[in-house]
Amino acid sequence: MSQKQIDPTWAWQPYAPSADQPWNLRRVAHLYRRLGFGTDWETLNAGLSSTPEQLVNDLVFASPESDSFQSEMKAMSRALVATGNPRDLASAWLYRMINTTNQLQEKTTLFWHGHFATGAQKVQDAFMMQQQNELLRKHALGDFNEMVQDISKDPAMLLYLDSASNRKTHPNENYARELMELFCLGEGNYTEQDIRELAKCFTGWEVRNRRFRFNKYQFDTGSKSFLGTTGEMTGEQAVNHVLNQPTAPVFIAQKLMRFFVMDEPQATAELVAPLALQLRKDNFNVGNTLKTILGSNLFFSDLAIGMKVRSPVELVTTLMRSLNGTSSMDLLASGLHDLGHSIFFPPSVKGWDGGRTWINSSTLLGRANLIHRVLRSENTQFGGGTLAEYTDKHGLSSLTDVADRLIQQLFAVPISNDIRDEIVSSSSEQFSQREEQLRSLIHTFTSIPQFQLS
Amino acid sequence: MNLTRRKLIASSLASASMITIGSSSRSLPGFLLQAADSNAKSDESVLVVVQLSGGNDGLNTVVPFTEPVYYNQRPDLAIPKANVLSIDDSLGFHPVMQGFADLMEDDKLAVVQGVGYPNPNRSHFESMDIWHTCRRKSDVREEGWLGNVMTHQIQEGSTDIPGIHLGAEKQPLALASRSLRIASVKSLDQFKLPADSKTLSSVVAKGEGGGNGGLLDFVQSSTQAAIRTSEQLEEIRSGNTSAVTYPNSALAKKLETAAQLIDSPLATRVYYVTIDGFDTHAKQADAHASLLRQVSSSIKAFVDDITHRGHDRRVMVMCFSEFGRRLKENASDGTDHGAAAPMFFAGSRVKAGFHGKHPSLTDLQQGDLKHQFDFRQLYASVLEHWMKWPAADVLGGQFKPLDVFV
């Protein structure tokens, strides 16, 4: 079924289990993989005893972080910011993704990090990068209007886009362009003239001592004319005007759909129209629209399951969470860099294109090699112990049992018994010790093409 | 430091070719043409694309040092006339580009001026996509100009790696193909198969589970290509080091690897590398100088290396950026996105010198330089004259190729 044939009304209506679209472990696993970073066997099974609507509702609205977890994260951030090295922030964030109970908030924060991409290689300040990360988290599931107003004054963002100074005589166009092109409207929905005029609205917006400052002497108080409006606008009013454009909710809905539902084909304006309408009527509340998306017919259909390429972050975090794993976060973070997903260091202000661009010969070998290193690291444990102990605890005595469990938990596309048996026999033939056999089994399963799909 | 150069006359736009007066094009001694020491499998031409990402400021690269407008629009950033490495009476290179100056002196560099396209787009991503696919956003853009053409050229069942992208960044769209998989290699040393490769190869060869809307097929064929590439590169991994000393930069390392691969049994004909950082909105002077130095010295070292290895008659470097930058400098000691800019071709078989006139600094389009050559004309030159591949539909129209190769 091509996207042209998908009925936009059907697409976003709540999924109701039926004989040919049953509520089963496959769909529960799909939900946990997309809404967050996967989960373990017990949680997956527990999910089956809720209805899809209840489960989605709980995960979206009723999974807050505990106070003690939040304090722990605050302390961790403070310590890492003190080192001054932005690379350490990636390790802390990975820890949070793996351990937070509010999986959707964290997954959406990752989405916004790619959307409002800001690179530490240019900002070069751990404090500012962490502040931005907190800003994204604060507004992740909230009001997109507020997010944009705040990010427009975020010191890291302004520095990244060369807008730490913006003078009346020569307005800096960079933020004006990216605000419309990348953050709110999409390329082609404004003119070069609009960019020049909008840039005037941001004159006097500066960063001093890592904080936003409004320099009224540099602010152009004259009239500006862009996107169909003319007047003496402040920067805040200009941002509101951009967000009021009809294309804004469509653009955001398309991005949300791509990130949470399917990599391809590209979401058409027609298909996301109901979502865009909801965003507009709901004061741009992202959490409510995500609830619609994650509980929908389209989301739980075969048009979506297995139809995204796992990003490198999802690759490592899902593996860890599914098997109650812990490891060195630094090891994972440095591995991500090799796979093209260096969080806090996006390749450009456009973030990561994702989809097929995650996959090339170099990254494929990189994925296999990273998992190989993680499985062999002395810092890696599963359920607090070895793989052998972990599988014993779960009553998985044979390698085939383990293989079946991995397939159920980790794979979005079917794996034939033929493939399963080949991997099982190769692991048992090459190694005699159980721990080595299990490592080899997991390693091979995570190297095959099917594993790259979520 | 000035070069001594014979005069080059820029022809009219209509013929768009170069006339030289003075000595005729030099021919290489016969024994170099034999490439006696080369163990290369193929005698076919090779293209090395060097992409400058971010929008290279052409005006400070090829400097119009006799134009008053250049100096009064760029009071801080304009390159002082005394510092320019002049090539003729009115144009010269940025002072750090000794490598390009030397190549020009050796008749191994061609500068095509004022390259762009109608209705220029000033978004990095959109403009780069246009350069990569010859299509605008409204069209379907699944394949790149090189990916598309290579797909038609590669024979059924061939195990050759058609093209190699050297770098860690995501693979340029120019190489994308519906069926071909171009290898992305970060470094030869890191390109090793995972420990249990036999089982992986076997599982992948089964090719199960297709029909998943293409995504699984894509990952499967990519995995197969990765395994195959790794096996082929295994033989090249050791030895084969360069006699030429390359500068110490990421771009130089990539080009050095390309030279090693060209001088190997691989029949690969397209290599693609990128260097990022040209988006100089603020404090341009030092950043741009550093980048130009890298580009100039790396390409010079590469051409020297290729010549030393005996492949210079069949290797061509093409260097471009997604747009130039605005004539008037901004208030942050930088420049903003522009339009037309120069392209460079380096190698023994270029028609050295300038092609076309320098774009006018007074007859502008929204403050930017107007283009005189469509980039697709240069693609046509590369595909038809250099690679001997029919351009067919990939350009999206008829574009008269420029005469830039010998």
Commentary on this structure:
The complex is a heterodimer of chains A (454) and B (406). Chain A is mainly alpha-helical and 454 residues long. Chain A has two domains: 26-307, no CATH class; 312-452, no CATH class. Chain A has helices at residues 8-12, 25-35, 41-48, 52-61, 67-83, 86-99, 103-115, 120-123, 126-139, 144-151, 155-160, 174-184, 192-201, 235-243, 247-260, 269-281, 286-294, 312-322, 329-338, 361-376, 387-393, 399-410, 417-430, 434-447, and strands at 205-208, 211-214, 224-226, 229-231, 325-326, 381-382. Chain A has a two-stranded antiparallel sheet with strand order 1-2. Chain A has a two-stranded antiparallel sheet with strand order 3-4. In chain A, strand 1 (205-208) and strand 2 form a beta hairpin. In chain A, helix 4 (52-61) runs antiparallel to helix 17 (286-294), helix 9 packs antiparallel against helix 10 and helix 23 crosses helix 24. The longest helix of chain A is centred in the N-terminal third of the chain and has 17 residues, at 67-83. The mean pLDDT of chain A is 94. Chain B has two domains: 46-188 and 241-395, 3-Layer(aba) Sandwich (Alkaline Phosphatase, subunit A), CATH 3.40.720.10; 191-235. In chain B, a hairpin with a 5-residue loop joins strand 5 (85-86) and strand 6. In chain B, helix 9 (250-262) runs parallel beside helix 10 (284-308). Mean pLDDT of chain B is 85; it is low at 1-41.
